[in-house]
Amino acid sequence: MKIISLLCVLFVFSSAVNTFSQGKNYDEFSKKDLPNWSWTGIEMKYSHDQDNKENGFAEIHSTGTVKPKTVIGRVTKTAPHVFTAGNYINVMMEGVNADVSVRFQLLYDVDNNGKFNEDKDIMLTSKPLSLNFSGWKEVKVKLDQNNFKLISKFDDNFSVTEDEIFAFQLEFETGKDFKESKFLTGIALISEIVSKENFTVLSDTEKKAEESLFSAKNYPNPFNPTTTINYTLKESASVRVTIYDRLGREVVTLVDESQSAGTHSVDFNASNLPSGVYFYRIKANDKTEVKKMNFVK
Questions:
Q1: Do the Cβ atoms of 263 and 231 come closer than 8 Å?
Q2: pTM of the model
Q3: Is the pLDDT of residue 267 over 50?
Q4: Which domain holds residue 71?
Q5: The pLDDT of residue 31
Q6: Which of 95, 103, 163, 261 would give a disulfide with 171, using CB separation of 3.0 to 4.6 Å?
């Protein structure tokens, strides 16, 4: 029976790799020591001794019986990744044939202190996703404001998805119809699938590039730690180039002077700043243009 079960996992997991070929893998469980994973309330272990992408998966189980309407526990991987809003977060999971749900949670270390603090940082948590099925299945949810709730004690917004996550977390919970018993599931793959809608938005953005007031671009982008902002003035103007963080807070003013018509450039060094999304605003006389850039350490 164990051989048949393993073959089934191999078949499903192999199909999943093909399905996710258009996306980006966050964890394919090809390393049996489960690097960067931690767990609370439940146990997590590599499924067996073999170590390759075709059959690696993690087993998650409770230490004893679990009651209805209970948070069973959480498993957390601490590793950076930018999950883009509008894309799908996918987890290949083993069903439990019971009233159990899982929440996908993205943790953002906003204060950049190397850990997640509920009172200072940001969490995006998905709606409950049912595990009441048999065998292995792709459990996926779109990263948008209809499916995820933002938890923060500050005036934050969904633009946090433009930053790298600090950690990815799975929270398991039983429902009212769960019969007291042990809990057992598995994870074979965590991935992000790019939405076709996002491709459309990207194409429209690229087409609008020609409409830029100052033909503003920065290179490289993403950058680490320095990028050069280039812009063109059609006439002499009083120019101000300012950098802002993702929350709209002013970081530094790079240019504040009168400049002649023509092409100009200025360097921005972010070596003393946390990685993430930044914006540069170019204001010349009564015209203003804002562009986005990504600082990736």
A1: yes
A2: 0.64
A3: yes
A4: 2-197
A5: 80
A6: 103
